[in-house]
Structures are given as structure tokens and as C-alpha cells.
Amino acid sequence: MRPRTGVLIIILAAFVAAIAGVIAGRVLTVPAVTPAAELHAVLHDRMDLNSDQTTRLDALEHVYAVRRAAIERQMRADNTVLAAAIETEHGYGPGVAAAVDRTHATMGELQKATLAHIFAMRQVLTPRQAPQFDAAVVKALTDDSHAAK
Fold first, then answer.
1. On the CB side of 120, how many CA atoms lie within 13 Å of its CA?
2. Which CATH class, in words, describes the domain spanning 34-146?
3. Most-buried pick from 47, 66, 72, 107 (CB within 10 A)?
4. Is the sign of the CA dihedral 109, 112, 118, 119 positive or negative?
């Protein structure tokens, strides 16, 4: 066997092992609770909401879900434009820069919509419930266990 062939076999084996590790990690690990799920649990499971609050929160969640879905579709479209610019320019050219700026603007729209939704939900709560909700929001924003690795 030529030395080059041996190196290629080692590289291929390392690649296959890496893929196997990713697959095993996804299959064997329990997904972490997301900040959104935690916030939802605080609202619906740990607070004594009355029926009017539940109805109003459900309506807010529906409106937000529709808005979030629209923004996420825009983010996918922005990523398609970014991919085309990268394919065309093969570097960080003006098309890539413009596509990145557009993607960041859309991400900002999602963050603003999310914050507006959080503040709208807070308005449904009583003064007694609001501090627990506020603490859950702060935890969701500052909890390092949810950070991208």
C-alpha cells in the first residue's frame, strides 16, 4: 500500500467515526428543555391562571406563532439568497455582505417580535404573578445551559 493510500484510509476512518459519534449523540442524549418551553411551563403549569387569563394567553400565543412562522420563512429565504451569493462570489463580496445584513435584520425582527410577545403575556398576569414570570424570562435569557456549544 502506498503511503498516500494509507493516509486517505485514516482520513476516511476518522470521518466515519465522527459521523457515527454525532448520530450516537443525537440518539442517546435527552434533548435539553428550551427556554421557550421553560417559560411556557412556568405560565401554564406553575401559575394559577384563571380562565380569562388562559384564554387571553392562548390568543396571544396563536398570534405570535403565526408571526414567528412568517419570520422563520423569511429567514429561510434570506439563507437561500446568502447561499446563492456565496456560490456566486466565492468570498465575502458585496452580495454576501448584503445577504448577511438582511439575515441579521430578519433575526432582529424575530427578537423584537418575541420580546413584544413576552411583554404582552406579562400584561395578562396579576401583580402577584408577574415576578415569577419575570424571573423565568431572566433565567431563559441568562441560563448558559441553553447556549450554543
1. 15
2. mainly alpha
3. 47
4. negative
Task: Please report, for the chain, the start and end positions of each structural domain, with discontinuous segments joined by +.
Answer: 1-30, 34-146
Q: For residue 28, what is its C-alpha cell?
A: 442517546
Tell me the DSSP string of 76-125: HHHHHHHHHHHHHHSSS-HHHHHHHHHHHHHHHHHHHHHHHHHHHHHHHS
CA–CA dist 135, 84 (Å, integer) = 42
- Residue whose C-alpha cell reads 439575515 in the numeric block: 103
Residue 85 contacts residue 96 (beta carbons within 8 Å):
yes
pTM over 0.90: no
pLDDT digits 0-9 by tens, 37-93: 777 777 777 888 899 999 999 999 999 999 999 999 999 999 999 999 999 998 889
What's the mean pLDDT when you consider all of the chain? 83
Q: What CA–CA distance (Å, rounded) separates 102 from 77?
A: 10
Q: Answer with the residue of higher pLDDT: 95 or 18.
A: 95
Cα four-point dihedral sign 52, 53, 58, 59: positive
